[in-house]
């Protein structure tokens, strides 16, 4: 293992310390491992809280700021946070307008956020609406598994719901933006190598040179199948076809196309992949109205990428274009 | 024999469970690395240590419900992952069922276990046969209830319950995982013993050992 760390046990807190030093616009509670907008709670605004295991940066802490999240909670690497952290964050961002929890569909995240919402309501009376994202089409037998995983759509949901909250929409409408985004978004990923969890010290899974895992999750969970490495043009098809088979993206007002890096794949390859994705979408009659390319939801130092498509209407495009000012996403400011 | 489980005995049970999990931490993590994310032993050990330090700091409520609630919250607050809320819910529901009292008879203990089981069922949305902790928990609780209904002695019923949990644990090996992270492995989850069922079997063996030993010591 070659990593720029001091000690595996200190990675999460020391990284948060660095985030705080680099971004004075954030307030970081190192004890509870919570990243806040410095001006939270924002009077009258619905607050957005998300969180999960660490190792997916910039998600979620890098998406805290105006136009996106009010707080993000960091668990251990690839381990969900505990309810106490979520309650603490929820209490500190609520302005009285209520709080939306955005939760990726992973059993640990779902259970801990669920308990937190119960405790927050019982102890503080804060109104919490939790919305779960589950956009990963790689998981086929939803009835016989923990269900589709929450992946790329989570980034888009945090941006779009963040803009809706900033615009002053009430609690249920902000939660509804997350639900609409989740219902209209689909993702699929591929890993070329396995990431290494600092505490484990060795790659999570073996992936021989010359092979790739299609449909991988964001913690190295196995995907649909292992296949020989192929040119980017074919990989784009392997990722896009299951997405297009799952939901019709041709009608309506177009899509946001998102090519996401899993941590160790450079931008030169991500843009190359985006080119292949865009060309295939054009051939399939899918109109791209906005795009996002880069490492936004990573899996430590996994090489590979994921593709997310989101069907949008005028409202969602306006929310997408609204100003956002976070370490990870920043425009219009 | 005394058929009363008092607050001291319940504390001993929780502390014994924590010790047994720590002793088996490497095995639990090994099982979890085959079909999960290789942290069940370390996560649960961390949480149970937090629980034991709360139980040992002298501020433990003298009443069973509040003591179990404090234990459950300590666990929930320190484990993370799925096992924190699931074990935490088990103890929190036991706490509600037991209420403010300083001893439980066999039927009240069985009722508290049943409440804990119902809590885990509701929290995890899993059913028997999904290759989870429930595959040890359900037989453990049902066997205890059945044994008491048949009028068998308390000690014997607790032993039967622990045996049933272990048999349930062993039965998870050929199962196909349908919940949690192991479910993404599909067929590849077959042939591995479930780590959650393994730690649950330790919980009921610890109950048999401490609650029956408690009687022996008197």
Automatic annotation (TrEMBL), chain A:
<protein>
    <submittedName>
        <fullName>Dihydroxyacetone kinase subunit DhaK</fullName>
    </submittedName>
</protein>
<dbReference type="InterPro" id="IPR050861">
    <property type="entry name" value="Dihydroxyacetone_Kinase"/>
</dbReference>
<feature type="domain" description="DhaK">
    <location>
        <begin position="7"/>
        <end position="331"/>
    </location>
</feature>
<dbReference type="GO" id="GO:0016301">
    <property type="term" value="F:kinase activity"/>
</dbReference>
<keyword id="KW-0418">Kinase</keyword>
<keyword id="KW-0808">Transferase</keyword>
<dbReference type="InterPro" id="IPR012736">
    <property type="entry name" value="DhaK_1"/>
</dbReference>
<dbReference type="InterPro" id="IPR004006">
    <property type="entry name" value="DhaK_dom"/>
</dbReference>
<dbReference type="Pfam" id="PF02733">
    <property type="entry name" value="Dak1"/>
</dbReference>
UniProtKB/TrEMBL annotation, chain B:
<dbReference type="InterPro" id="IPR004007">
    <property type="entry name" value="DhaL_dom"/>
</dbReference>
<dbReference type="Pfam" id="PF02734">
    <property type="entry name" value="Dak2"/>
</dbReference>
<dbReference type="InterPro" id="IPR012737">
    <property type="entry name" value="DhaK_L_YcgS"/>
</dbReference>
<protein>
    <submittedName>
        <fullName>Dihydroxyacetone kinase subunit DhaL</fullName>
    </submittedName>
</protein>
<dbReference type="InterPro" id="IPR036117">
    <property type="entry name" value="DhaL_dom_sf"/>
</dbReference>
<dbReference type="GO" id="GO:0016301">
    <property type="term" value="F:kinase activity"/>
</dbReference>
<keyword id="KW-0418">Kinase</keyword>
<feature type="domain" description="DhaL">
    <location>
        <begin position="8"/>
        <end position="209"/>
    </location>
</feature>
<keyword id="KW-0808">Transferase</keyword>
<dbReference type="InterPro" id="IPR050861">
    <property type="entry name" value="Dihydroxyacetone_Kinase"/>
</dbReference>
């Amino acid at each position: 293992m070659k990593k720029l760390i001091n000690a595996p046990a200190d990675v999460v807190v020391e990284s948060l310390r660095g985030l705080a030093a680099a971004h004075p616009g954030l307030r970081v509670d190192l004890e509870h491992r919570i990243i806040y907008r410095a001006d939270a709670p924002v009077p009258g605004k619905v607050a957005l809280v998300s969180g999960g295991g660490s190792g997916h940066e910039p998600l979620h802490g890098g998406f805290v700021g105006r136009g996106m999240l009010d707080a993000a909670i960091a668990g251990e690497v690839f381990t969900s946070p505990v309810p106490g952290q979520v309650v603490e964050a929820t209490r500190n961002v609520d302005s009285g307008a209520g709080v939306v929890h955005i939760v990726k569909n992973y059993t640990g995240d779902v259970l801990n956020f669920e308990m937190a919402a119960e405790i927050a309501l019982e102890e503080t009376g804060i109104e919490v609406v939790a919305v779960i994202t589950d956009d990963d089409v790689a998981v086929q037998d939803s009835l016989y598994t923990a269900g589709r995983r929450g992946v790329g759509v989570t980034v888009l949901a945090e941006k779009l719901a963040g803009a809706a909250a900033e615009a002053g929409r009430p609690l249920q409408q902000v939660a509804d933006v997350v639900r609409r985004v989740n219902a209209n978004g689909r993702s699929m990923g591929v890993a070329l190598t396995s990431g290494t969890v600092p505490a484990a010290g060795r790659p999570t899974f073996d992936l021989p040179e010359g092979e790739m895992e299609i449909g991988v999750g964001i913690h190295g969970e196995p995907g649909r199948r292992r296949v020989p490495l192929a040119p980017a043009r074919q990989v784009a098809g392997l990722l896009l076809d299951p997405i297009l088979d799952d939901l019709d993206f041709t009608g309506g007002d177009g899509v946001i196309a998102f090519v996401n890096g899993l941590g160790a794949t450079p931008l030169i390859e991500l843009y190359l992949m985006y080119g292949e994705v865009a060309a295939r979408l054009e051939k399939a009659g899918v109109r791209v109205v906005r795009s996002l390319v880069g490492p936004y939801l990573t899996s430590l130092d996994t090489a590979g990428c994921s593709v997310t498509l989101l069907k949008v209407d005028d409202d969602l495009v306006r929310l997408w274009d609204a100003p956002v000012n976070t370490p990870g996403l920043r425009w219009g400011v | 024999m005394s058929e009363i489980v008092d607050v001291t005995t319940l504390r001993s049970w929780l502390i014994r469970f924590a010790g047994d999990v720590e002793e088996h931490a490497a095995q639990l993590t090994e099982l979890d690395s085959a079909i999960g994310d290789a942290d069940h032993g370390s996560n649960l050990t961390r949480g149970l240590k937090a629980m034991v330090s709360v139980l040992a700091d002298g501020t433990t409520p003298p009443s069973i419900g509040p003591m179990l609630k404090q234990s459950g919250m300590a666990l929930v607050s320190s484990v993370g992952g799925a096992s924190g809320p699931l074990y935490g819910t088990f103890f929190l529901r036991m706490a509600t069922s037991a209420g403010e009292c300083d001893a439980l008879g066999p039927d009240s203990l069985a009722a508290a276990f049943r409440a804990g089981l119902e809590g885990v069922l509701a929290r995890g949305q899993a059913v028997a046969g999904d290759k989870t902790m429930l595959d040890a928990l359900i037989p453990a609780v049902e066997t205890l209830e059945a044994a008491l209904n048949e009028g068998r002695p308390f000690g014997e019923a607790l032993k039967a319950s622990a045996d049933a949990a272990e048999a349930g644990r062993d039965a998870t090996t050929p199962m196909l995982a349908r919940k949690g992270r192991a479910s993404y492995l599909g067929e590849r989850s077959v042939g591995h013993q479930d780590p959650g069922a393994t730690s649950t079997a330790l919980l009921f063996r610890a109950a048999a050992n401490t609650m029956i030993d408690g009687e022996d010591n008197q």
